[in-house]
Amino acid sequence: MAGSNEMTINLVVFGRTQTGKSTVGNSLLGSSDFESRCSPSSVTTRCSLGRSCRISGIIRRNGCEMALRVQVLDTPAYPHTALSEEQVKDTVRSALAHHFGKKGLHLALLVLRADLPLCPDESDHTIQFIQELLGPTWKDFTAVLLTHADKAEEAGFSEEVYLHRASSTLLSLLSLVQHKYIFLNNQKNIIKEERAIVLRKVLSFIRQNNYKMLLLSHKE
């Protein structure tokens, strides 16, 4: 809490190269803090923290409207085209401890592409990666964010049909995180409109978790 009429939520985004992690961070912040572009190699090479301005009209507590501030930690992709697995883990672990070690983390967003299938090996490696960084309670503090939902819609998949036809690998992952998931449309003219919707969903996950925060310390 930043004050009696203001709330700050701390988020981190994880994901593979070109899933749209940095774009997700920018859409949550309502800014262009994080570099995001099409590239044949991993774009993000270090962690960076972005902070939003005060956002109104999103959250009410005890019958009163509160201002919302969002902090998002953008992280290098895993696997990465230039960094080793241990380099990525060390970088992310240090940044988590530095930015959220004392304040705590509300939610990690695992970014996947809705227009690409999730393979078992990829899911297993991703789960192990997040578990090593967040610890044994990672499932309580992780939600899945599916980007490029517009491409799935163009292919004729509504959210309901998509989940009905989704692979057992994706459905198992969603079950692990207690079905905390969000579909994000990546068309630029829609992202701005969807920001409030996405933030309300993020807040609903935080509320379901009774506003608990994950405290992170750097292990030498």
From TrEMBL:
InterPro entries: G_AIG1 (IPR006703), GIMA/IAN/Toc (IPR045058), P-loop_NTPase (IPR027417)
Keywords recorded for this protein, A-Z: GTP-binding, Nucleotide-binding
Domain named AIG1-type G: residues: 6-220
GO MF term list: GTP binding
Domain of life: Eukaryota
Gene3D superfamilies: P-loop containing nucleotide triphosphate hydrolases
UniProt record similarity statement: Belongs to the TRAFAC class TrmE-Era-EngA-EngB-Septin-like GTPase superfamily. AIG1/Toc34/Toc159-like paraseptin GTPase family. IAN subfamily.
Protein name: GTPase IMAP family member GIMD1
Organism expressing this protein natively: Psilopogon haemacephalus (coppersmith barbet)
